[in-house]
Amino acid sequence: MRIAITGAAGFVGQAVVRQLRQSRPDVDLLLADRAFTGPSAYPTLAGDLTDPAIVRALCSPETDILLHLAALPGGAAERDPQASRAINLDVPLALVEAMAGRRLILAGSIAVFGGTLPTQVDDTTPPAPASVYGAHKYMVEIAFADAVRRGAIQGMVLRLPGIVARPAAAGGFGSAFLSDIFHAAKAGTPYTIPVAPDATSWLLSARTCAANLVTAALGDATAQAAVTLPALQVRISDLIDSLARVGDVQRLTFDEDATTRRTFGSYPPLTTRCADDLGFQHDRSLTQLVETVLADL
Amino acid sequence: MRIAITGAAGFVGQAVVRQLRQSRPDVDLLLADRAFTGPSAYPTLAGDLTDPAIVRALCSPETDILLHLAALPGGAAERDPQASRAINLDVPLALVEAMAGRRLILAGSIAVFGGTLPTQVDDTTPPAPASVYGAHKYMVEIAFADAVRRGAIQGMVLRLPGIVARPAAAGGFGSAFLSDIFHAAKAGTPYTIPVAPDATSWLLSARTCAANLVTAALGDATAQAAVTLPALQVRISDLIDSLARVGDVQRLTFDEDATTRRTFGSYPPLTTRCADDLGFQHDRSLTQLVETVLADL
Fold first, then answer.
1. What is this model's ipTM?
2. Chain B residues with CB within 8 Å of chain A CB
3. Inter-chain contact B81–A149, Cβ cutoff 8 Å?
4. Which residue of A204, A250, B116, B130 is surrounded by the most CB atoms within 10 Å?
């Protein structure tokens, strides 16, 4: 069995590859990304997914399952809507087509919910994107649901919440501050958090996110509607309290930016019954999330 | 001022051109369609909108307003999802791009609501497409809304209900029976209606639909959310009673097809406050709708 993975050189992709290598050494992997640095335990395919030849190679008949993680991040998408269209819309649509009859797991995003969320989010909350990134992710959800309805594809779209911790100073993500807090606490360096202590976000560790992606790829469930992954609703002040036990938070300060607060720091309680029923996990507690993330940094 | 119109040779397009010619002889029109038969009072552009050269010609700097009516109909879209993607998704997205900063009116569809409607439909009813056609129309709504949010486009998407009467035996439309009833009643010919007498549909005459499209094109309102056009909720038995007064319905019979009933004959009451506030009209009564449609056949 072969699983092809796009965005395999990214931080979530690397976590997925690590877990599959440990738990399923019998599975062949084909790793795709724009570029790879250093040696790889698996065959790699370096190139741009907007190149049809790359899509053909990725979706050759030997590929049983495709896990599509590559994306143009939200900030970059907002600055260049045409590039977002190519990468965040046309590429997934091409993959749905090329993987017809096979299993496809697409990384979606909670960005489909837009800026102003209701007081509670659950599987019935209607998407209302307020960004180029969220709009393209939602358009892909609709196309995927229709392909499932027609019996043309198997698998699902998984909406990812804020994944921590991205590499330090990852460009293009308005939510990067959530990861930067971990880096600063680990290194004891100064960092100004762009939301107030009472801001709330949905967090999922890269390790647990990767475990969920592996579960989705290796399972046989197909979902017509996109599945919002479980996440912890975390208050920033609670996150800092947890980090203080294992890191150094003395040099963290606050300077709230209204847009960042609205977009990434005002998340209500989250219920994810569909994901729970499909066996997806969140980090069990904030303490455990902090330990996991710092161990993986 | 120049208005470019796609699908201009279609039955709604022709009604739009007729109304603009009468009411606004000062306006230049550029008419686009795959082909034109006979002479035209306005310049024509014959070709396929999937050809970028046609889009460039259509959206040249002289075009102030674009009214996009061309589409691959629902039945044909279901049989060829790739063709629907090209015509019903990629073309409108290209037009949003090419008309940046100008006014664009896109013909959407109530097909975005899918097969199973709630007991009442209004401007808050969430779309849930259940067809290739509806999925692509909904994806375009999302892209248009995002372009409006970014200030990249002006205008709106108008969701069209069942427009009567299409030309007899129009291919590719599962809703064609609604038009065929009018043709059969006018000619006194036999016709088997594929829903029961108590089926309900939303109807709008081509003439009133065209008037609404002209209102949208010439106005200056921009709507981020798609606007569902007003329509009459019509019971088929009531339609036949009205037709009996001015036509010959003796040879109409019924043989309900479950899919047609579910998809095109189970429409609940419709409220369209957004459209009403923007000045869009429905046919004032079923009697008036029948008179208008038969007069235009």
1. 0.95
2. 81-82, 85, 93, 97, 126, 129-132, 135, 138-139, 142-143, 145-146, 149-150, 152
3. no
4. A204
